[in-house]
Every structure is written in structure tokens, then in C-alpha cells.
Amino acid sequence: MREVKIGLCGLGTVGSGVFNVMSRNLAAINARSNCQISIAQVGCRRDNVACDLSKANITRDIFEVAQNPDIDIVVELIGGTTVAYELVMLALENGKHVVTANKALIAEHGMTIFAQAEARGLMVCYEAAVAGGIPIIKALREGLSANRINWLAGIINGTTNFILSEMDTKGREFADVLSEAQAKGYAEADPTFDVEGIDASHKLAILASIAFAMPLSLEGLFTDGITQLEPQDVAYARELGYVIKHLGIARQTDAGVELRVHPTLVPERSLIAGVNDVANAIMVNADAVGTTLFSGPGAGAEPTASSVIADIVDVARAMDSYPDSWVPALGYSSSVIEPRTLMNIEDVETGFYIRFSALDKPGVLSDVTKIMGDAGISIEAIIQREQPAGERYVNVIILTNVTKEKCLNEAVTHIEHLETVRGEVSFIRVEYLDQV
Ligand code: HSE
Q1: Residues 94 and 156 grouped into a single domain
Q2: Mean pLDDT of successive 10-residue stretches along the chain, which has 436 residues
Q3: How many CA within 13 A on the CB side of residue 423?
Q4: Which protein residue's CA is at the shortest distance from atom 4 of ligand 1?
Q5: Which residue ranges have their beta carbon within 6 Å of ligand 1?
Q6: Are residues 116 and 167 in the same domain?
Q7: What is the pLDDT of residue 436?
Q8: Which domain holds residue 372?
Q9: In this structure, are 10 and 150 located in the same domain?
Q10: Residues 65 and 150 in one domain
């Protein structure tokens, strides 16, 4: 069997997972790849690692790994976009194929990295960059290659899904759940990347590029996190028959491509509503196949290692064949990848959940419904909460039909100016994810 030598850079949560799964399942991995794969060198600066390095060839200099003439594939698991970028480019300059789990690196520098790899006849694989253990990159690039993709909507950050699930089912506090996600190794080094939606935006940019043959870019991608969500919204959504999920949505419309990450009400009956804890799920709607759902663990050591090793197997199998037979980095020949017009969030059409505090007196709701009617917004449901004794204000919750965000913003401004309304009107977008 052909020998294939790996240089593993980074032994954090994912790196240790790769080391352990490779050691445990090596016979099957070799049989599947028809190669004899070994970890020839490990580049790592940390001393406390969750794997047995007693037989490993270790260096503290990751750049040594990228230049080691024995190594065929450099596996970049150090994270970040500065040193990781230098490492990947150096590995390519030195004729190494690259496997990475680094979504920020691919979303921000993917086009440069792929161009360099293509010019040098090398592969760069990144299955683990999106949705941890779910083979969604392979599904989009290969399994769905017959289709025109209409839209995809995904829970693509395990940490936020874990937090929302715990808030929903156990009424736990946000900060307390976040600490648990960090302890379990789900969260990013800087957890604001998770809760502000940045991690999900990196992943959505990657999915959209593959789905719609457009260059990787974060420009124009609307991003909102879950830090402003209140437990009462999670509870009101349930009362209305919805669940709040943090979704990344990409859709092709006649007016352009929508790319957005934000908390979203989805109907309890939708496939994605029941995907809880650290699980991720991506719904893909395409013209030939219809709607599919890919779900599984979206973070954690071994689920992510599963995807990294699948890439290693793919590279090991293909590296001695002609580059023309390889699956292109974004699933399409680079010559057809073209920028697309992105839609401004104000022009996107969704349903809306609205909450505000209003004086409990006759005529208030009719003022609000008139404003909504004047803005062309149709109301689907209204809840008014009974106030505690002595409280003059009540919470009003409105669910609208699908409307342009521009119209909703106009209505919100008018409602906030009503003398009977106190404070700001908050809103959350609603998606029906019709499974047609
Ligand atoms: N922090 C990420 C998440 C890890 O929570 O999904 C996997 O990309």
C-alpha cells in the first residue's frame, strides 16, 4: 500500500480528537483509503494535551511541519486567520496538500488559498469547517451536484443551539449555559464569535459559495447574534407554536441572493425545530431532490475529527490521480465562480414576531393595528399578557405575515412614537421553511 504521511498542526480540542480517532481506527481508515496513513510529525506548542504523545515526533515549530519533505498532507488545526494563513500558504508552497477545520480562514482567505492550491496542483479540503461531524460540504459539492439549489437554512453553531435549547427546556440563564458550552469544548476561543453570530456567518459564507457558485466573502452578509434574546421571547414563541433557533439562511431570489444569520422563529412542526443541544442541522431545498435535512453533532473533539479524517482519506485516495479528476474546492470549476448581487436586509421578506410594552387601556391595540395596516402588514396572531396587580403596562406580542423588512421598520418607528407605548419595540424574524 502507498504510504501517506500527515503533519498535524495544533493539538487543541479538535487536534487531540484527530490524533485519538486516527490511532483508534487506523486499520479501518487505511483499508478505506487503500493507503498506509501515519502521523509523521505533530506541531504543537501546548504541554497539556488530551492524547498520548509518547510515540509521536513532536516539534514546537509548526512551520517546520509545513517544510518537512517527508510530509504529504498538512492538517491545520491551530485556528485563527494570521498564523494559520501563513502555515497553509507555506505548506502549499512546499507542495503539501492541506486539510483544515478553520472556517474563518476559509471564509476570509479561501479564494487566495484555493487559487494557490490550483496553480500548484494541490488539494485544500475543509469539511470540518462547517457543521462539525456532518458531511455537508461533501453533500453539497457531490451528492447534490445534479441540482439547482434554491435555499438552505441551518443551525450551524452548536454553542448557540446548546444555549437556546437549555433556555427553552430548562429556563436556564444565558451566561451559565455559555460556561458549560466552553467547558465542553464547543465554544470558540473567543465565545463572542459564537453568540454574536460571527462563527455562523463564516460557515454560511462557505455554504452559500458552494450552493450558488459565488466567491467566498463576508461582505454584505447580515449577522445578528443571540445576546439580545430574552427568556420571555423563547416562552412567548412556544405559546404561539414556534421555537427560536439561530439560523444561517442563504436563498436565491429574482432580486438577488439573501445571506443572513439571525435568531429565527420556526414552526414547532418544522424538521429543524427539534434539533437541540449541540446538534447542527442544515435544510437544503433544491430543484430535483426537493428538501433534505442533514443533522448531527456540530462541534466537539471527535465529531469534528470525523470530518477532518474523512478529508485526509479523500486526499490520500486522490493525490496520485490527475487534478482534473478532483472535486473542485467550491464544487464548480473556478472559471464559473462569479460574484452575485446580495440583497439588503431591508428588502428581505419574512414574517415577524414583535414584542412591546403598552398601556392597558381601550384603543391602544386599534392604534397599533392601524399602523400595521397602513404599512401593508397583515397580522397573523396577537397575544396580550394580563398584567400583575398595580402594573399599568402589558406585554403585547404580534405575529405578522410575510412582509418586507423595510415596511416592518416603518411600522416599528410609528409604534414606538405612540404615547401609549413604553420603550423599544423588539422583533425577531420568522421563517416557515416550507418543505416543498
Ligand atoms: N464554536 C463552534 C460551534 C465550533 O459552537 O459550533 C464548531 O465550529
Answers
A1: no
A2: 97 96 98 97 92 93 98 97 98 98 98 98 98 98 98 97 93 87 89 96 98 97 95 93 98 96 96 95 97 95 97 98 97 97 97 96 93 96 83 94 97 97 97 76
A3: 11
A4: 299
A5: 132, 157-159, 186-188, 194, 199, 298-299
A6: no
A7: 44
A8: 347-430
A9: no
A10: no
User: Could you identify the residue written with the cell 479538535?
Assistant: 14
pLDDT tens profile 166-176: 999 998 888 88
Structural domain contains residue 82: yes
Q: Which of 203, 245, 370, 404 is catalytic?
A: 203
CA–centroid distance, residue 385 to ligand 1 (Å): 37
Task: Round to whole Å and give the CA distance between 221 and 199.
Answer: 12
Q: Which residues are CB-neighbours of 247 under 8 A, at least 6 positions away?
A: 153, 154, 155, 261, 262, 263, 264, 266, 272, 431
Report the candidate in 129, 184, 124, 120 with the shortest Cα–Cα distance to residue 156: 129
Neighbours of 45 (CB within 10 A): 11
Whole-number Å distance, alpha carbon 240 to ligand 1 midpoint, is 29
Nearest CA to ligand 1 atom 7: 299
Q: Are residues 182 and 65 in the same domain?
A: no
Distance 251 CA to ligand 1 centre (A): 23
Residue 245 appears among annotated catalytic residues: no
Q: What is the CATH number of the domain that holds 354?
A: 3.30.70.260
